[in-house]
Design brief:
single chain, about 290 residues, alpha/beta, Rossmann fold, five-stranded parallel β-sheet, about 40% helix
Amino acid sequence: MAKHPNKTSGQNDKPKKGDVDKPKNGDVEPAETADKSLSKKEYNRELKKLHVELVKMQEWVVAKGLKVCIVFEGRDTAGKGGTIAAIMQRVSPRVFFHVALPAPTEREKSQMYAQRYIPHFPAAGEVVIFDRSWYNRAGVERVMGFCTEDEARGFLAVAPLFEQMMIKSGIILIKYWLEVSPEEQTRRLKSRIGDGRKTWKLSPMDLKSYGRWDDYTKARDEMFAATDTSWAPWFVAISEDKQRVRLNVITHLLKHIPYKAIKSPKIKLPQRKIGRYKAADIPLKYVPEVF
């Protein structure tokens, strides 16, 4: 894997307790899944604890003017959107920003490749989460022929330097790859076909990509080899169980962004008087109480 002698402060170069090395064969086997699923009660209990810590981290990021950029990559149905939603559920939308860019316009296609991502980078006191990122070029664009092989290899050569520039500017960059087995991917895709809540997730590109499993595996491995650096390593999360991967990723994230709880003054609601003004009799249109 590519390494660089000049490590940048602020990044976690050494593995921490709880980190695991990627298996030599990055594909997940169904047997690796947990024997017992979490109950809804257990999941909500653990998620609530993590949400409290995310709010503490949020307050620290704002107070210290930190700039945090989190990248989520992975195959279709790997659970990126659900994991990001779990992170965003209880934090402020004025601090945490979810970026999921559509396909590039004709104008954007003519720009420098990373140009459309840069305006979304965090300023002081912000956390930006990319649901797919500049790594589109190393994955879907490369596999599906939306860029040339020379463009893909050029990207892999430049990406580590690009990310080093990000870090030197003060951005804390954390990259996650959510890994799912082919069997679980098939199950999730089938579930989208018959569920009216999920049909919007099933695009023509998903169907075209479905038969290219090995091509995506090769592209993923070459991406890891070129861009898993000491200053911006990849963290792989096993995503066979959506609830577990959400808890695991949030726990890992909290360990990799150093923060402390900020003391806040005790809050006490002030006294108020009600009844000094009588509401006007205005013929308003009320929402029917169907439930």
